[in-house]
Amino acid sequence: MNNYSNIQKILHKLILSNDFLLKTTFEIERLFYRKKKNYYINRHCFITGLARSGTTTILNFLHKTESFASLTYRDMPFVMSPNFYNSFSSIKNGVYFKRPHNDRIIHTTDSPEALDEVFFKLFEKDIDIENNLKIYINQFCKKYDKQNYLSKNNYNYKRISLLKKTFPNAKFLITFREPIDHASSLLEQHKNFN
């Protein structure tokens, strides 16, 4: 949010901290952007692993194949209504920014990110996730005109069974890193953010 104007920061806080607004934008999306084709049986890909284990690198590599729909910074803050927001958004292309991690990863407005955690915080019960996740993923497949969805979320390890039940053909990539290197990287980030 360092690159945002004050108005953008206020809008982000207003939308993302208000469950009522998030659910309302999701319902607007469902109402106006119903997708006849369903991507429930497609080969979606869910990446998960501990922080600093390489999930972002794998996400960026797979996203560059242009085979997947994924949430991007362009979808912020209306991550629950990508098509509706896209119809009036005027976000510029080509805005580059470095991650605060100082790890040489450069992002743009079209870089994928773990923004679907907003959905999982909004729908916490398994039955609510099952009932709404298919719709949610359909929205992004529609927006980006892709058959498959790509998600990187370090918390997905907690919901692999639920995701597999909802999407039987999904693939899961779970990252591991050599423990000493991993611990060293976590310590560096601890120092960096302190």
Mind explaining what this structure looks like?
The chain has a 4-stranded parallel beta sheet. Strands 3-4 form a two-stranded antiparallel sheet. β3 (97-98) and β4 form a beta hairpin. It is globular and about 50 Å long. The protein has 194 residues and is an alpha/beta fold. The chain has 8 helices and 6 strands.
N-to-C span: 18 Å
Q: Quick one: overall form?
A: globular
**Which class of secondary structure composition applies to the elements?**
alpha/beta
Average predicted confidence as pLDDT: 85
Number of helices: 8
| Beta strand % | 5-15%
- Contiguous low-pLDDT stretches (5 residues minimum) are none
Helix-strand string: HHEHEHEEHHEHEH
The number of strands is: 6
Major β-sheet annotation: 4 strands, parallel
Q: Which radius of gyration do the C-alpha atoms yield?
A: 17 Å
Strand sequence of the main sheet, in spatial order?
2-5-1-6
Bin the helical content. 40-55%
Outline of the structure:
By secondary structure, the protein is an alpha/beta fold. The protein is built from eight helices and six strands. 44% of the residues lie in helices and 11% in strands.
Task: Describe this protein with a few key phrases.
two-stranded antiparallel ribbon, 8 helices, four-stranded parallel beta sheet, 11% strand, 194 residues
